[in-house]
Amino acid sequence: MQNLSKNQQIIFDLIDKSPEPLKAYTILYNVQKKGIKAPLQVYRALDKLVEIGKIHKIESRNAFIACHNSSCRVAKATAFSICEICEKVTEISSAGLSKYLANFKDKDGMKYIKYNLEFFGLCKKCKVK
Amino acid sequence: MQNLSKNQQIIFDLIDKSPEPLKAYTILYNVQKKGIKAPLQVYRALDKLVEIGKIHKIESRNAFIACHNSSCRVAKATAFSICEICEKVTEISSAGLSKYLANFKDKDGMKYIKYNLEFFGLCKKCKVK
DNA sequence: ATTTAAATTGTTATAATATAACAAGATGTT
DNA sequence: AACATCTTGTTATATTATAACAATTTAAAT
User: Fold this and answer.
1) Which backbone phi and psi does A80 adopt, to 5 degrees?
2) Beta-bridge partners for B78
3) Which residue is nearest to nucleotide C15 (CA to C1')?
4) How far is A51 from A45, CA to CA, in rounded Å?
Protein backbone atom coordinates (compact mmCIF):
# COMPACT_ATOMS: atom_id res chain seq x y z
CA MET A 1 0.00 0.00 0.00
CA GLN A 2 1.46 3.25 -1.14
CA ASN A 3 1.43 6.25 1.14
CA LEU A 4 -1.18 8.89 0.70
CA SER A 5 -0.28 12.37 -0.46
CA LYS A 6 -0.97 15.36 1.74
CA ASN A 7 -4.39 16.18 0.33
CA GLN A 8 -5.36 12.55 0.09
CA GLN A 9 -4.44 12.01 3.73
CA ILE A 10 -6.35 15.05 4.95
CA ILE A 11 -9.45 14.01 3.07
CA PHE A 12 -9.20 10.35 3.98
CA ASP A 13 -8.82 11.22 7.67
CA LEU A 14 -11.96 13.30 7.54
CA ILE A 15 -14.00 10.59 5.82
CA ASP A 16 -12.57 7.89 8.05
CA LYS A 17 -13.58 9.73 11.20
CA SER A 18 -17.07 10.48 9.95
CA PRO A 19 -19.91 8.27 11.15
CA GLU A 20 -21.79 9.01 7.96
CA PRO A 21 -20.98 9.29 4.26
CA LEU A 22 -19.68 12.70 3.28
CA LYS A 23 -20.42 14.65 0.16
CA ALA A 24 -17.68 16.32 -1.85
CA TYR A 25 -18.62 19.87 -0.95
CA THR A 26 -19.15 19.00 2.70
CA ILE A 27 -15.61 17.69 2.62
CA LEU A 28 -14.45 20.87 0.93
CA TYR A 29 -15.95 23.09 3.63
CA ASN A 30 -14.32 20.97 6.30
CA VAL A 31 -10.81 21.05 4.86
CA GLN A 32 -10.62 24.65 3.80
CA LYS A 33 -8.90 25.50 7.04
CA LYS A 34 -6.21 23.04 6.01
CA GLY A 35 -5.54 24.84 2.76
CA ILE A 36 -7.64 22.86 0.34
CA LYS A 37 -9.58 25.56 -1.39
CA ALA A 38 -10.99 24.24 -4.63
CA PRO A 39 -13.49 21.50 -5.52
CA LEU A 40 -11.04 19.95 -7.91
CA GLN A 41 -8.55 19.32 -5.15
CA VAL A 42 -11.21 17.38 -3.32
CA TYR A 43 -12.42 15.45 -6.34
CA ARG A 44 -8.90 14.49 -7.32
CA ALA A 45 -8.19 13.09 -3.89
CA LEU A 46 -11.55 11.29 -3.86
CA ASP A 47 -10.87 9.72 -7.25
CA LYS A 48 -7.55 8.40 -6.07
CA LEU A 49 -8.90 7.13 -2.76
CA VAL A 50 -11.69 5.29 -4.56
CA GLU A 51 -9.18 3.88 -7.02
CA ILE A 52 -6.99 2.40 -4.31
CA GLY A 53 -9.95 1.18 -2.31
CA LYS A 54 -9.61 3.35 0.79
CA ILE A 55 -13.06 4.77 0.30
CA HIS A 56 -16.19 3.90 -1.63
CA LYS A 57 -18.72 6.06 -3.35
CA ILE A 58 -22.37 5.59 -2.46
CA GLU A 59 -23.71 6.24 -5.93
CA SER A 60 -27.31 6.81 -5.00
CA ARG A 61 -26.25 9.51 -2.56
CA ASN A 62 -23.20 11.07 -4.20
CA ALA A 63 -21.35 10.51 -0.97
CA PHE A 64 -18.18 8.84 0.19
CA ILE A 65 -17.48 6.43 3.02
CA ALA A 66 -14.27 4.85 4.27
CA CYS A 67 -13.82 1.17 3.51
CA HIS A 68 -14.18 -0.90 6.64
CA ASN A 69 -14.03 -4.19 4.91
CA SER A 70 -10.57 -5.63 4.83
CA SER A 71 -11.48 -8.06 2.09
CA CYS A 72 -12.35 -5.49 -0.55
CA ARG A 73 -9.01 -3.84 -1.00
CA VAL A 74 -9.56 -3.88 -4.72
CA ALA A 75 -12.55 -1.59 -4.44
CA LYS A 76 -14.33 -3.56 -7.07
CA ALA A 77 -17.04 -5.27 -5.14
CA THR A 78 -19.06 -3.19 -2.77
CA ALA A 79 -22.31 -3.65 -0.93
CA PHE A 80 -24.07 -1.23 1.37
CA SER A 81 -27.22 -0.95 3.35
CA ILE A 82 -28.88 2.42 3.42
CA CYS A 83 -31.57 3.49 5.85
CA GLU A 84 -34.19 5.44 3.98
CA ILE A 85 -35.12 7.48 7.01
CA CYS A 86 -31.91 8.43 8.78
CA GLU A 87 -29.67 7.78 5.76
CA LYS A 88 -27.28 5.71 7.82
CA VAL A 89 -25.03 3.72 5.54
CA THR A 90 -23.26 0.52 6.49
CA GLU A 91 -20.87 -1.51 4.42
CA ILE A 92 -22.05 -5.07 4.23
CA SER A 93 -19.41 -7.67 4.80
CA SER A 94 -20.83 -11.02 3.92
CA ALA A 95 -18.72 -13.80 2.54
CA GLY A 96 -21.83 -15.52 1.23
CA LEU A 97 -23.06 -12.47 -0.61
CA SER A 98 -19.75 -11.59 -2.15
CA LYS A 99 -19.20 -15.15 -3.20
CA TYR A 100 -22.64 -15.35 -4.76
CA LEU A 101 -22.22 -12.13 -6.69
CA ALA A 102 -18.65 -12.88 -7.73
CA ASN A 103 -19.87 -16.11 -9.25
CA PHE A 104 -23.01 -14.71 -10.78
CA LYS A 105 -23.30 -15.17 -14.52
CA ASP A 106 -26.01 -13.62 -16.62
CA LYS A 107 -27.87 -15.25 -19.46
CA ASP A 108 -25.03 -14.64 -21.87
CA GLY A 109 -22.67 -16.38 -19.50
CA MET A 110 -21.05 -13.08 -18.73
CA LYS A 111 -19.13 -12.85 -15.50
CA TYR A 112 -18.57 -9.59 -13.74
CA ILE A 113 -15.52 -8.69 -11.77
CA LYS A 114 -16.91 -5.54 -10.32
CA TYR A 115 -20.23 -4.53 -8.86
CA ASN A 116 -21.96 -2.12 -6.58
CA LEU A 117 -24.97 -3.13 -4.58
CA GLU A 118 -27.09 -0.77 -2.53
CA PHE A 119 -29.79 -2.18 -0.28
CA PHE A 120 -32.49 0.12 1.03
CA GLY A 121 -34.56 -0.38 4.12
CA LEU A 122 -34.96 0.77 7.67
CA CYS A 123 -32.17 0.51 10.18
CA LYS A 124 -32.78 -0.94 13.63
CA LYS A 125 -33.37 2.42 15.24
CA CYS A 126 -35.72 3.74 12.61
CA LYS A 127 -37.65 0.48 12.50
CA VAL A 128 -38.56 0.85 16.16
CA LYS A 129 -39.87 4.38 15.92
CA MET B 1 -51.75 1.03 -13.88
CA GLN B 2 -52.75 4.65 -14.10
CA ASN B 3 -52.38 6.51 -17.35
CA LEU B 4 -49.40 8.72 -17.88
CA SER B 5 -49.80 12.45 -18.10
CA LYS B 6 -48.79 14.31 -21.23
CA ASN B 7 -45.24 15.11 -20.18
CA GLN B 8 -44.74 11.73 -18.59
CA GLN B 9 -45.85 10.01 -21.79
CA ILE B 10 -43.60 12.11 -24.00
CA ILE B 11 -40.60 11.42 -21.82
CA PHE B 12 -41.36 7.76 -21.32
CA ASP B 13 -41.74 7.25 -25.06
CA LEU B 14 -38.33 8.78 -25.65
CA ILE B 15 -36.63 6.63 -23.02
CA ASP B 16 -38.46 3.53 -24.11
CA LYS B 17 -37.33 3.94 -27.70
CA SER B 18 -33.73 4.61 -26.74
CA PRO B 19 -31.25 1.76 -26.99
CA GLU B 20 -29.19 3.34 -24.25
CA PRO B 21 -29.83 5.07 -20.94
CA LEU B 22 -30.63 8.75 -21.33
CA LYS B 23 -29.54 11.59 -19.12
CA ALA B 24 -31.97 14.23 -17.95
CA TYR B 25 -30.59 17.04 -20.07
CA THR B 26 -30.30 14.81 -23.12
CA ILE B 27 -33.97 14.13 -22.64
CA LEU B 28 -34.65 17.83 -22.27
CA TYR B 29 -32.94 18.67 -25.56
CA ASN B 30 -34.93 15.96 -27.29
CA VAL B 31 -38.34 17.03 -26.07
CA GLN B 32 -38.01 20.77 -26.43
CA LYS B 33 -39.73 20.59 -29.79
CA LYS B 34 -42.68 19.07 -27.97
CA GLY B 35 -42.98 22.03 -25.65
CA ILE B 36 -41.10 20.81 -22.62
CA LYS B 37 -38.74 23.66 -21.96
CA ALA B 38 -37.42 23.45 -18.43
CA PRO B 39 -35.30 20.91 -16.54
CA LEU B 40 -37.87 20.71 -13.79
CA GLN B 41 -40.51 19.46 -16.17
CA VAL B 42 -38.19 16.63 -17.10
CA TYR B 43 -37.17 15.81 -13.55
CA ARG B 44 -40.74 15.75 -12.36
CA ALA B 45 -41.74 13.30 -15.04
CA LEU B 46 -38.67 11.18 -14.35
CA ASP B 47 -39.43 11.09 -10.63
CA LYS B 48 -42.93 9.88 -11.30
CA LEU B 49 -41.87 7.31 -13.88
CA VAL B 50 -39.30 5.91 -11.48
CA GLU B 51 -41.87 5.85 -8.72
CA ILE B 52 -44.34 3.81 -10.73
CA GLY B 53 -41.64 1.53 -12.08
CA LYS B 54 -41.81 2.43 -15.76
CA ILE B 55 -38.16 3.45 -15.76
CA HIS B 56 -35.11 2.92 -13.59
CA LYS B 57 -32.28 5.22 -12.73
CA ILE B 58 -28.74 3.97 -13.31
CA GLU B 59 -27.25 5.66 -10.29
CA SER B 60 -23.63 5.36 -11.27
CA ARG B 61 -24.38 7.07 -14.57
CA ASN B 62 -27.15 9.52 -13.69
CA ALA B 63 -29.14 8.07 -16.52
CA PHE B 64 -32.53 6.53 -17.05
CA ILE B 65 -33.64 3.38 -18.80
CA ALA B 66 -37.06 1.90 -19.45
CA CYS B 67 -37.96 -1.14 -17.42
CA HIS B 68 -38.01 -4.24 -19.56
CA ASN B 69 -38.54 -6.62 -16.76
CA SER B 70 -42.17 -7.45 -16.22
CA SER B 71 -41.51 -8.79 -12.77
CA CYS B 72 -40.25 -5.56 -11.24
CA ARG B 73 -43.29 -3.41 -11.53
CA VAL B 74 -42.67 -2.14 -8.05
CA ALA B 75 -39.37 -0.58 -9.09
CA LYS B 76 -37.82 -1.72 -5.89
CA ALA B 77 -35.38 -4.34 -6.99
CA THR B 78 -33.16 -3.57 -9.90
CA ALA B 79 -30.04 -5.10 -11.36
CA PHE B 80 -28.05 -3.94 -14.33
CA SER B 81 -24.95 -4.83 -16.21
CA ILE B 82 -22.86 -1.95 -17.48
CA CYS B 83 -20.11 -2.21 -20.06
CA GLU B 84 -17.21 -0.09 -18.98
CA ILE B 85 -16.10 0.57 -22.52
CA CYS B 86 -19.22 1.24 -24.58
CA GLU B 87 -21.44 2.02 -21.59
CA LYS B 88 -24.13 -0.33 -22.81
CA VAL B 89 -26.56 -1.04 -20.01
CA THR B 90 -28.76 -4.09 -19.77
CA GLU B 91 -31.35 -4.88 -17.16
CA ILE B 92 -30.63 -8.26 -15.65
CA SER B 93 -33.61 -10.51 -15.30
CA SER B 94 -32.61 -13.46 -13.22
CA ALA B 95 -35.03 -15.24 -10.97
CA GLY B 96 -32.16 -16.76 -9.04
CA LEU B 97 -30.47 -13.44 -8.43
CA SER B 98 -33.61 -11.62 -7.39
CA LYS B 99 -34.60 -14.46 -5.13
CA TYR B 100 -31.18 -14.52 -3.53
CA LEU B 101 -31.13 -10.80 -2.91
CA ALA B 102 -34.72 -10.63 -1.76
CA ASN B 103 -33.91 -13.22 0.86
CA PHE B 104 -30.58 -11.79 1.85
CA LYS B 105 -30.26 -10.91 5.50
CA ASP B 106 -27.33 -9.07 6.96
CA LYS B 107 -25.62 -9.80 10.23
CA ASP B 108 -28.28 -7.99 12.19
CA GLY B 109 -30.92 -10.13 10.57
CA MET B 110 -32.09 -7.15 8.62
CA LYS B 111 -34.09 -7.83 5.48
CA TYR B 112 -34.27 -5.38 2.64
CA ILE B 113 -37.21 -4.83 0.41
CA LYS B 114 -35.41 -2.69 -2.09
CA TYR B 115 -32.04 -2.74 -3.72
CA ASN B 116 -30.06 -1.57 -6.68
CA LEU B 117 -27.25 -3.64 -8.11
CA GLU B 118 -24.90 -2.49 -10.82
CA PHE B 119 -22.47 -4.97 -12.33
CA PHE B 120 -19.53 -3.68 -14.33
CA GLY B 121 -17.61 -5.53 -16.96
CA LEU B 122 -17.16 -5.82 -20.69
CA CYS B 123 -20.02 -6.62 -22.99
CA LYS B 124 -19.67 -9.30 -25.68
CA LYS B 125 -18.71 -6.85 -28.39
CA CYS B 126 -16.15 -4.98 -26.36
CA LYS B 127 -14.64 -8.17 -25.02
CA VAL B 128 -13.79 -9.30 -28.53
CA LYS B 129 -12.01 -6.14 -29.57
C1' DA C 1 23.69 14.45 -7.41
C1' DT C 2 21.17 14.92 -11.90
C1' DT C 3 18.00 13.56 -15.01
C1' DT C 4 13.69 11.92 -15.98
C1' DA C 5 8.99 10.41 -15.63
C1' DA C 6 5.05 10.24 -12.95
C1' DA C 7 2.15 11.98 -9.60
C1' DT C 8 0.40 15.77 -7.18
C1' DT C 9 -0.86 20.44 -6.49
C1' DG C 10 -2.83 25.08 -7.39
C1' DT C 11 -6.04 28.02 -9.83
C1' DT C 12 -9.81 29.96 -12.60
C1' DA C 13 -13.53 29.10 -15.16
C1' DT C 14 -17.30 26.43 -16.59
C1' DA C 15 -20.18 22.30 -17.39
C1' DA C 16 -23.56 19.06 -15.82
C1' DT C 17 -27.00 17.60 -12.60
C1' DA C 18 -30.84 18.75 -9.66
C1' DT C 19 -34.10 21.39 -6.64
C1' DA C 20 -36.70 25.64 -4.43
C1' DA C 21 -40.45 28.53 -4.62
C1' DC C 22 -44.48 30.29 -6.50
C1' DA C 23 -48.64 30.46 -9.43
C1' DA C 24 -51.96 28.43 -12.39
C1' DG C 25 -54.48 24.85 -14.69
C1' DA C 26 -56.32 20.07 -15.23
C1' DT C 27 -58.37 15.96 -13.37
C1' DG C 28 -60.97 12.92 -10.55
C1' DT C 29 -64.31 12.14 -6.70
C1' DT C 30 -67.95 12.93 -3.84
C1' DA D 1 -70.35 22.48 -7.65
C1' DA D 2 -66.91 21.83 -4.22
C1' DC D 3 -62.97 19.75 -2.97
C1' DA D 4 -58.58 17.62 -3.01
C1' DT D 5 -54.91 16.02 -5.73
C1' DC D 6 -52.05 15.89 -9.46
C1' DT D 7 -49.83 18.12 -13.16
C1' DT D 8 -47.97 22.00 -15.50
C1' DG D 9 -45.34 26.31 -16.35
C1' DT D 10 -41.73 29.49 -15.08
C1' DT D 11 -37.68 31.80 -13.08
C1' DA D 12 -34.04 31.44 -10.25
C1' DT D 13 -30.69 28.99 -7.83
C1' DA D 14 -28.32 25.09 -5.58
C1' DT D 15 -25.45 21.09 -6.01
C1' DT D 16 -22.21 18.06 -8.18
C1' DA D 17 -18.36 17.56 -11.24
C1' DT D 18 -14.85 18.50 -14.92
C1' DA D 19 -11.80 21.27 -18.45
C1' DA D 20 -7.68 23.50 -19.24
C1' DC D 21 -3.32 25.19 -18.02
C1' DA D 22 0.90 25.75 -15.28
C1' DA D 23 3.86 24.79 -11.51
C1' DT D 24 5.73 21.78 -7.98
C1' DT D 25 6.87 17.63 -5.62
C1' DT D 26 8.17 12.87 -5.42
C1' DA D 27 10.37 8.64 -6.56
C1' DA D 28 13.23 6.04 -9.12
C1' DA D 29 17.07 5.32 -12.31
C1' DT D 30 21.20 6.46 -13.89
Assistant:
1) -135, 155
2) B116
3) B25
4) 10
